[in-house]
User: What shape does this take?
Amino acid sequence: MTTVVQSSGGRRRGGRERTGVFALAGIIVALVVVYLALNTGSGSDSRGLLPYQALAASLPDTDQQIHDALRKGLLAAEGERSRISRWPEVSTLGLPADGYEWIRFDRGVVTNYFGTPRDPGQPAWLLEIQEPEPGTAPDPAPNDDEHHRLADGTTLHVYVWTHRLGGQVAAAFVPQPQNTGWIEVFSKVPNPVFAIRR
Assistant: This one.
């Protein structure tokens, strides 16, 4: 003789789980809608930036000047890199020396030019240059704030970063700036199609 016992507890549990999933999905959708509404409604040019990114135009004037000087220094560094096949020393780049000490750090295919402020209340700055790994296919990205080409056609990924707590940041190679409070600074919103992170 076979006895079949049915319990309605499984249906209740399944209903609770389904309700929980729908509630969580509703919260996620609501957060996305709020985020999009805030970014769209702001009317600023910073739409499309990630939370750790900013436009140079949104920075104080002195920081904008440092950003511009870093971009010019980058062009000088690229010229030297093409000429001598290595990244030049800091002293040859014309980086902003007023109030900053600059050090170059190299790790693999990444070079950092790190600017430590003499006044601990000023921001620190980082010019990060990433060459392609040996043997990788050429990068098709167009030249922009993040992509530059050397004279031999090598595509570089270049980034300018700032850290508001400059006096609290130790001068060292920074492997993942976005994970340690650094803000990536752009002249204009980057093309999301070609954005590549290490």
